[in-house]
Amino acid sequence: MECSLRVPAEVSISNSELCALVSNMLDNALNACEDVDPGKRFVVFKASVKASYLVLDMRNSKSTSEGDEGRETTRRGILDRIRFAEEQTSGGSLAEHGGGLSVIDTIVQRYDGAVSLERSKAGFRMSVMVDLAAQT
Length: 136
Known about the structure:
Elements: E1 2-6, H1 15-33, E2 43-50, E3 53-60, E4 70-74, H2 82-88, H3 94-97, H4 99-110, E5 114-119, E6 124-131
Parallel strand pairs: 1-2
Antiparallel strand pairs: 2-3, 3-6, 4-5, 5-6
């Protein structure tokens, strides 16, 4: 696993919300890696602040049988695009894997943010942006 964190010690998002975002993104990434050959597994997490936005970016390997290339970006309502998340998990139902996405969606909406989900042959990428200047 590779991590790059470039964020100030104090940001306006609560510690519990920040933890919820990162832990759910990481859980999804690790689940997607389970069916990948150990020598080909990867998880890369980057966090930074750009303008007033906290940007969290998680890239990970996935099974080659997990769907075609594609990209979905949504200003609000990641749950409307839940099929992308189902494809990046290593199996199971939405009830087993979708709870974390609901948490992410709730926090993103609270901070007037956005979520981008992208899949390719090489892996899966989830980017989350939350506006640190947004009034909660």
